[in-house]
Amino acid sequence: MRTAILGARVIDPSSGLDRVSDLYLDGGKLVAIGQAPAGFTADKTLDAQGLVAAPGLVDLSVALREPGYSRKGSIATETLAAAAGGVTSLCCPPFTKPVLDTPAVAELILDRAREAGHTKVFPIGALSKNLAGEQLAELVALRDTGCVAFGNGLDSFRNSRTLRRALEYAATFDLQVIFHSQDFDLAEGGLAHEGPTASFLGLAGIPESAETVALARDLLLVEQSGVRAHFSQITSARGAELIAAAQARGLPVTADVALYQLLLTDEALIDFSSLYHVQPPLRSGKDRDGLREALKAGVISAIASHHQPHERDAKLAPFAATEPGISSVQLLLPLAMTLVQDGLLDLPTLLARLSSGPAAALRLPAGQLAVGSAADIVLFDPQASTLAGERWYSKGRNCPFLDHRLPAAVRYTLVDGHISYQS
After folding, report:
1. Residue ranges of the alpha helices (H) in 202-328?
2. First-to-last CA distance in the chain?
3. Which helix (H) or strand (E) element contains residue 112?
4. Residue 156 has pLDDT above 90, yes or no
5. Are strands 57-59 and 52-55 parallel, antiparallel or unpaired?
6. Cα–Cα distance, 109 to 152 (Å, whole number)
7. Which helix (H) or strand (E) holds 90?
8. H or E element: which one contains 206?
9. How far apart (Å, rounded) are the C-alpha atoms in residues 218 and 253?
10. 118 DSSP 8-state letter
11. Phi, psi (degrees; rounded to nearest 5) at 224
């Protein structure tokens, strides 16, 4: 299939390209920008005047819920939701049942993702068997199956010596480790950010130090082991400062932030709505401002959805008994565009944090519009708007942004030159 995309504003953050131009696709690759190759005849032409053409978004954390949690979502539904949000490549965490700690589980996920064909899927393997933090999973075998990194989620290693050995082993094979830094003991039983809102509502608090204490330990062990590290779901201004200090010391560490942490604060909990129950929790306005500054400066180089779809019943109990998480990947691009609307980021910088930044953090073959690269492209209208939830593909409707009018609308998502989503 040969495709011509005509008249779009082409933005490629990785090369600095930003101009109105044409794109030519052939055999799943981007074969030319500007002038059509000699003898090129398009089988399909997309009129993209008024649209922005950008690298397909790269989302570093999308829970696909399969295998094991089909009532919450499936690979088919959640990758379609991702495509509707402009995502062409995504990483899925190992929180499945059984846990993604064997090649068999990784192969199942990859096979079903290929069958669905909506997005490319890069599994994150479990760092320890059954996420228990005691014995290493089959890391090399998982890598050879297709896992691009390894993590334990918020189920952190309680024993620092065991974690150190795990990091040294990973470093030996140049495997990347993803940290969700939260001290188990400081966070245990907590439901919300420790502060005035939690006190007013009578909710058990999770202090900022639950993140910073664990983050300080993890950074020191990364420095000692030499492992490639990515810090996921940074929630506090102080945590972002620790990442910045580590980068200034020359540590090759990267970090991402959940999009909802850039938009919401713990004050959203004031009505006890379980839609705002997330782990790690929404933090203070000061923390949100610190995260935004770190994002602007590039200390945090990636925005992720941290999509966690749930069935309806999971959010119907009293706040403390509900399951944490927001279904958000379908709104990734329109919701992120509020950061441009608010003047925090210009459009090329936002697209960098959604594509080239996350791709570079995990060394993924994605996130750029370069001749010869895969034709993974999102075409969106920056002047239109999206009514969140009007068409909803995720199984989980646990999203506080539903029925909101959001800036920008995804028109086409192309994966390897094929249209995987069209509005």
Report:
1. 209-225, 237-248, 259-263, 285-297
2. 20
3. helix 103-116
4. no
5. unpaired
6. 18
7. strand 87-92
8. strand 205-206
9. 11
10. S
11. -70, -40
Please answer whether residues 150 and 139 qualify as being in contact, where contact means their C-beta atoms are separated by less than 8 angstroms: yes
Q: Report the alpha-carbon distance of residue 190 to residue 192 in Å, rounded.
A: 6
The packing angle between helices 75-84 and 103-116, to 10°, is 50
| Cβ–Cβ < 8 Å for 205, 192 | yes
The Cα–Cα gap between 105 and 107 comes to 5
State phi, psi for 16 to the nearest 5 degrees.
85, 5
pTM above 0.85, yes or no: yes
Average pLDDT, the chain: 97
Q: How many secondary structure helices (H) and strands (E) does the chain include?
A: 13, 18
* Separation of alpha carbons 408 and 333, rounded Å: 8
pLDDT at 158: 87
The rounded distance, in Å, linking the Cα atoms of 101 and 103 is 7
Q: Which two tokens stand for residue 212?
A: 């910073």
Q: How far, in Å, CA of 27 to CA of 10, rounded?
A: 20
Which pLDDT tens digit goes with each residue over 170-190?
A: 999 999 999 999 999 999 999
- Tokens 């995502």, residue located: 87
Contacts with 350 (C-beta within 8 Å, 6 or more apart), sequence order: 303, 336, 337, 339, 340
Which residues are bridge partners to 52 per DSSP? 9, 380
> What is the rounded CA–CA span in Å between residue 182 and residue 231?
11
Using alpha carbons, list the distances in angstroms from residue 368 to 13, 334, 378, 381.
Answer: 7, 20, 11, 19
CA-based nearest residue to 91, from 110, 73, 68, 107: 110
Residue type, 187: A
Task: Annotate 134-176 with DSSP letters as a single string.
Answer: SSB--HHHHHHHT--EEE-TTS--S-HHHHHHHHHHHHHTT-E
Length of the chain: 423
Cβ within 8 Å of residue 389, ≥6 positions away: 397, 399, 402, 403
Report the 10 Å Cβ neighbour count for 159. Answer: 12
